[in-house]
Amino acid sequence: MTSRVVLLCHAATSATRRAAFPADEPVETDPAPLPLRADTYLTAPETSCRQTATALGLPATVHEALRDCDFGAWRGRTLDDVTTSSPEDVGRWLTDPSANPHGGESTLDLLDRVGAWLDTLSDGRTVAVTHPAVVKAAVVRAILATPRSFWRIDVPPLSQTMLSGRAGRWTLRLGSAAGATTRPTP
Predict the structure, then answer these.
(1) What is the crossing angle of helices 132-142 and 107-120, to 10°?
(2) Is the whole model's pTM more than 0.85, yes or no?
(3) Which carries the bigger pLDDT value, residue 59 or residue 29?
């Protein structure tokens, strides 16, 4: 059997608009309901994900493994601000996946957490509302990319990323944005 997971990025927030490290902001605009069939609906615990799931009419259960990356002391600050005040730290963070100069999670920590969650998924279809960083980590794990590839993936608000497979063997399935007229295939 095979697991199928649709990773749905939360709707836009002030942090996504300002290129800031998230600080559990609400969504700026509720998305229209979206018909997504699944056996299991999950959401990250943060406000933006829970609000997106509710607005889309998804009966999602909070799952801690889907939480956003812990950006520590950079939480709520813009990337430009952090780059101006700590350019060496930002440079290290962007080039060394094990670095966590902000005191939170490193990219490697995030990749390991998301990879472990993927390995727990059972057969069937799961829809998970989560954050861009979590989606990027899942893609890196699914396609066996290097950790530095994390920075080469862009995940816009309300985008869908589909994976199919099972523990240790995932395939990326490209799909459409949440507002598009096509639906992911089962």
Answers:
(1) 70
(2) yes
(3) 59
